[in-house]
């Protein structure tokens, strides 16, 4: 197992290096310069600014310099805000983004699992249809529409919860709930399908005929075995959620990092483009590793195959 | 198992009620009022609390006056800092740190007498050398100030910024001198009647050298690594979330500052801003076009003209657009009025000019725009005639031209409108649209790789020159290969002329020349629209630099 993990960690860094390289050169193909006042800059100033940020060097030199700093964990300075480092931007923005995302993930997964299991156990009943209607709505309605409706009706019309901003726990409810709708829907549908398949297998019948109670069979055999595909989708979903949603953060005025993924590209803010991409990729590869290890715990067959 | 049935039912009811709530409820009108009432209770005081709540769309990019380049930074600084003068409600210079000033006969030497009561927020006096330091700092090449060019009117400022000039980087040669603590002498390159107003611009604010050096690279990054000398101080600055102004007790004119506190929250979404306005959590909210109709009968709705003009660059590198008749035909062939009414609907007005209206009064007190009037009109018949002549002159019967556009929704609609009108009204023209992200668009524009380009320009100082000198031959912002020696001569002349009336006339004539040539096709002068609570009074709006001053603002009648 240890050898397996070491091997995976090594290939993780190779993956990151490849991602960083491709992003760097693609980014350099963007036309335009990163300076705010580009319209009014004189030639002398433009040259001096480029010099300061090392943008006059040939691209391969810039690339080597960047990797050197990256190896020390230094992501450089943003061009958008005077004197602010990319590290601090990510550190400050990740808090709110990750909080909301994590809340949405936990809430969404539990509700989704619950709906999925119930729907499968009450297959083709009113309960099943009800749960699946909810799931279809959840997938069909984009989270920003849902967020807008919640904000207007719950925040403005009813006045039950804050319209926006980032303060106490009550400020988390609407954004986290808006984000979780997609999670609920996806998890519920996956869980229902998996459960139905497993409920029909021979080993469940066998367990039942051995005299094990229905409750125990469902929890120990059915649910556990149905979890594998759920864990597979939860990984990437988790990253998507905790790195922040541009739209949800904008609607609820949450000071997260989501916006920078898009904005930095439009503004040619090179260090932020690189920083957010590498950070995101890093999370992805780590989560994939965790998911793979979790597989092994849940399904011993996978552990044996990978761990030799 | 019984338990789970109940919880299932509960969940379903909860989830379904959410959808039902979303589908109905349109008629539960004023349920929000109670919420607004609760908010007020929290701050209830015997007299009316002087607290203003606002939204802004962006985080403050910089609080270092020599680094700032954008409207958010300029606005915040205008309220926590002060230059020699500041602009009042009528956009006239009113004393700031300077009590009064004298100008020598030919208008090139200004002697400012500083107010001895002008203090920094640490209690020390704002002295003349604080200005000298800040101005020299902005021009030092290492500072890399993107706005340093604004100091152009000050003697030697341009030479100091020009690489290769004997004066390059020699900031001690700048035309500014601290005679004593309260006397500042500024020498200009040439007379500039707008200079007084310019001293209220961020780049001209003072900085206290001792403090700046002590903070080193932490200077102006947080609210406590900055000294203030304006009507307010930044009490709190939560990056990406918002900031709070508090009245500055060390301010020389604090008796005229009425607000105790201004809370600004960052909100990027217009709909969110409107919802916050409806629940009373903000006193002002900007609106985008789609909300204007919804609020058009609401007393809180305001529209305000700005001094920013949008226009189409007509690139004369193009064989076709080199022809003056064709350029004139194009300008006449689309309906600017309906473009503004239908696509913008926000207080913007169609433009038939370069220098915006209600921006600069001349020596006779009359607005530049009023004196010069409009150039061009929407006239299909004439457009077709000129078009036919023009095509004959270039020897073509059909042309294909490219419009370089921004990739925002608003700009895209504008581009489509222009394309449709032109293709409908001018036989043989085909317009293709190339929408690009902001920076990329500027880059293509600089390289001159376009035929039409949707562009805008806001003023840097209150004078027609800030618009006019864009289009001199080979000017950095010309970008469309326009050249007319007569135009160049007028601009150059106006820059040197000491007689204000003659100077004004030259600038009036220059715009006429520009439109005889139809160098550009103006689109509209931008307006802004939004909602403002009736109890917010005394806001001063400006046309360049900072948008708003809160110095004279107050709350009246909220309770």
TrEMBL record, chain A:
Residues annotated as transmembrane: 9-27, 98-121, 133-153, 173-191, 230-258, 278-298
Signal peptide segment: none
PROSITE patterns: ABC_TM1 (PS50928)
SUPFAM superfamilies in alphabetical order: MetI-like
Membrane topology: Multi-pass membrane protein
Keywords on record: Cell membrane, Membrane, Transmembrane, Transmembrane helix, Transport
Subcellular location: Cell membrane
Boundaries of every ABC transmembrane type-1 domain copy: 94-295
The keyword Chaperone is assigned to this record: no
Pfam families xrefs: BPD_transp_1, BPD_transp_1_N
Highest taxon in the source lineage: Bacteria
Protein family (similarity comment): Belongs to the binding-protein-dependent transport system permease family.
Protein name, UniProt field: ABC transporter permease
UniProtKB/TrEMBL annotation, chain B:
Gene3D superfamilies noted in UniProt: Dipeptide-binding Protein, Domain 1, Dipeptide-binding Protein, Domain 3, Periplasmic binding protein-like II
Feature: compositional bias, Basic and acidic residues: 26-47
Predominant subcellular localization, coarse grouping: other
Entry keyword Signal: yes
Sorted UniProt keywords: Signal, Transport
Residue ranges of the region described as Disordered: 26-48
Signal peptide as annotated in the record: 1-21
Name assigned to this protein: Peptide ABC transporter substrate-binding protein
Organism of derivation: Fictibacillus norfolkensis
